[in-house]
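Objective 1.3, modelling of assemblies. Example input:
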Amino acid sequence: MSTLQAQPLRAEASAPAPVDYRRARRAETRSGYFFLAPWLIGFLLLTAGPMLASLYLAFTDYNLFRDPKWIGLENFEKLFNDSRYLQSVKVTLIYVLVGTPVKLAAALAVALLLNSGRKAQGFYRSAFYAPSLIGASVSIAIVWKALFSDGGIVDLGMTGMGFQPGGWVGDPDKTMPMMILLATWQFGAPMVIFLAGLKQVPRELYEAASVDGAGALRRFWSITVPMLSPVIFFNLLLETINAFQVFASAFIISGGAGGPAGSTLFYTLYLYIRGFGDARMGYASAMAWVLAVVIGLITWVMFRTSKGWVHYSGETK
Amino acid sequence: MSTATSTATAAPLTDQRRPTPPAPRRQDGARARSLMVHALSLVILAVVLYPLLWMVMSSLKPTNQIIGDPSLLPTEASLDNYRTALAGIGGISAWTFARNSLFLAVVSVIGTVLSSAVTAYAFARIEFAGRKLWFALMIGTLLLPFHVLIIPQYIVFNKLGLINTFVPLLIGKFLAAEAFFIFLMVQFMRNLPRELDEAARIDGCGHVRIFISIMLPLMRPAIITTSIFAFIWSWNDFLGPLLYLNDPEKYPLPLALRLFVDQTSVSDYGAMIAMSVLALVPVMLFFFLFQRYLVDGVATQGLKG
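Predicted structure (tokens):
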């Protein structure tokens, strides 16, 4: 109804067909924004607005109680002299750079295993996926802490195998392996994606390669990896971004402090401590933006380099 | 948990009874390989399930036998830990925490499904000016670390006096803040035949009619997947409640668990583990009932857990 009222007079003068077309298009646009409204409001108020606000706050001294005071680049300068901040960068980078490849390697290995035998594949697929659903929960963090604590199961097992006794939770050298094991335990989600990708690889390729005398390793590098490269890329991107955001497990295992000796002081945890513990919200915003820029750069580099190693064949997406 | 173990043993058995197709020459090799695959899969299964089994079994043991006891089976099983856990913390019953969690999760599901479906319809079925730009921005939010948002969002909710209410935890769900679900639904809708809505348009239906009476019923699988994930994500969420809630009466289970951790340290490991089990029960229930939807959702859309 409103379509008729909004129709400008000038349009009526021109030929009838384009008018109908234009009117229809305008009506479509109106419907489009009607349906888009909830997301658009959310995007502007909960995403775009806060992003700009935190960009501004990153250049201020702000603690919720006083008005933000513009201090230019001071927050960023402080960051690079803050040893705890540098520690959190180190911890997070090790976690991302070691943990993500380990987790993806486990996911790919198990996907290849399940793909080679078809029996009961569905059952294993579901069972292996279960940890991905609950791995980031507080419950599992508590279990992990208990398993790896002093005199816990892992300690007993390792001592039994002749290693130095001692819990992993309290040893700054062992907390990182413990956190990476927790991440690796959740290999199920990328594994399911790898499996879906493996299903798309035509069997004839392997058969032809076997006829030509290619061994299992050769078939893996020359067929599986290139055919799977879009899926590998997707998993790598997703898991890298997720790894930057680990929070609840580190918080619970270290009691919110990032210890021992800062060995579980993940980026998110330190940001929480500065922003909400010390109410240094300008400083924390600067931290958040450094992270956003780093993640943006990593994504950009991954997309740029992907042209060299990701192969998109015709019908497999 | 018992369901898990029973299906674990049942599935391979039924499979083995199935006659193997005749493949004369390669049969022995194929059988040996299949056995290998099974053996390896079982080993991995044991590693994957061990922490969960350990958790359930430990919850039945007395506190002083939990940490250093390598055997899974409790010498004398008792539900004492569950009694302590259900009694709650600081005079607040565990049911209060569970009720808060359930309320947050159910409202999250409703909000997420409604807002994501409407948004997905706009992107998948309406040719409006600016669609490509908004779609690209929507996909871009998938890559955005939440850190850049939490501080200003907190400041705003603080100014509005909404700290210690459920509003900051729920409002985003009604505004389709989780781009994953929009993406999932858009992909699903794009696969539905366009002839359906074109026929309806010729019959004079507007977009609202088409959306409600044609699309929504057809989107059931996508709606189910979205609902389950929205429920589980809300149920497991820790950071949101940690930031916005400070009255223990309003705590959902993950925050209550943290209270347990802080207040009891080593003294009552048993109750803490029992509470951890209880907090996972709904998630595991969903997992057993809807594993197809969950795993297929991951396989097709790359949704994570």
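Chain A touches chain B through 99 residues (CB under 8 Å).
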